[in-house]
Amino acid sequence: MNFLRFSDLCASGQATGKRVFIRADLNVPLEAGALDGALQITEDTRIRASLPAMRMALDAGAAVMVTSHLGRPSEGLWRPEDSLAPVAARLSELLGRPVPLIADWVDGGFEVQPGQLVLLENCRLNQGEKKNSPELAAKLGRLCDIFVHDAFGTAHRAEGTTYGIAETAPLACAGPLLAAEMDAISKALANPQRPLLAIVAGSKVSTKLTILQSLSDKVDGLIVGGGIANTFMLAAGLPIGNSLAEPDLLDQARAVMAAMKARGAEVPIPTDVVVAKRFAADAEATVKAVADVAADDLILDIGPATAARLAAQLEGAGTIVWNGPVGVFEFEAFAGGTEAIARAIASSPAFSIAGGGDTLAAIAKYGIEPQVGYISTGGGAFLEVLEGRTLPAFEVLARRAAA
After folding, report:
1. Taking the model in full, what pTM does it have?
2. Which of 4, 197, 248, 286 could be a cystine partner for 221, CB 3.0 to 4.6 Å?
C-alpha cells in the first residue's frame, strides 16, 4: 500500500514553516470531579499515543493544528461537556507548553506560528462533518499545507476531518500511528507469511459473519470461539446443550467450513469443552468431550485438549490475526482456553496482529503485550479491515500519493 508518510515529509524538510493539520483520536473518557463537578480525564492512553505526531511536527518547525472528536455531539450545538478543554489542559502538561483551544475555527481567523501548537475544538461540532459536506471540506483544505491523518479509530469513516480534508489539502499523509496500522494490516493480510491463522471469537456469528466469510478466502486456519464456536459445533452435528448459539445461521456456518475445506484449509472444531449449569463466576466447571455435552449444559470455554491442539497450530504459524477471547475469560474457571491461546501467540515466532476491546483486555490480563507483533486500537476500523473492506482513509491517502 503506497501512501505518503509524515515522518518522511519532516525528515526531508517539507514540513518546516508549513501549516500542519493533524487529525488525532483524542476521544478520551471523562467524568465529573468529586469536588467541583468539572469534567476530568479518567484514562489518557489515546492522548499519549497521539503525542509522537505532534512532537514530530513541532520538531520540524511546523505551525501545528490538532483536532479530534469527543463523544457524540450534535453538529452546530455547543455544550460544555462536548468541549476539548480537558484534553487541551492534559496536552499542555504532557508537552510542557501552553496549548490554546480554538473555537469556531473552520473559517480561519486564528494565528498559528511555526513552533506553536493549538487544539481546534471538537470537530464533530462543525456543520457537515459527519456527512463530509464539500463546502466544509474545501474550508478545511484551505487551513493547511499538509494534512496528517493519525486517527486509525476513525479511518473507517468518510467525514470532513478524516476524508474531505484529505482530498482538498495540498498534501495528505499518514501520521506515525496510522502508518503503523497500515503497515501491520498489510503485513498480516496483504502479504502474510504462511500459514496464516485467524482467531475470530464472540457471542454471535451474526456480528462477525462478514469477517468469517472474508477470512475464509484468505486464511489457512480459522479458529472460532465463544458463541460463534457453539454455532459451528451445532452446524457440525454436535450437541451444545443450552449454550448460546444461532441455529438460523447454520447454513452460513457450513458454507464457511465448506469454503475452507475446498481450499485445503480448516475450521478446527473443539473436541472437548468446559461446561457449567449456570452462567456465573462461581459456577462449577466441568471438562467434557463434546459428544457428552448434556441438554442443560452451558459451554463457557474450550477444553484443555482443544486448547493444546490449537496452541500447537499457533506456534507453527507464520502470521496470526486475533479478534476475540475463546471463552468467558472474565471468570477464572472458564479462562483456560483464552490464556492458552494468548500464551501460544506470545511464544509463536509468527507476526501477530490483535484488535478488539475484549482481545485487548485479554492481552492485558495475561501480560503479553510485548510479545504481540501489533496491537490495533482501532475497534470498528479493525473489524472492517477483517471484513475485507477498504477503509476510506486508506483509499484517499493512497489515491493522493499516486496523483
Report:
1. 0.89
2. 197
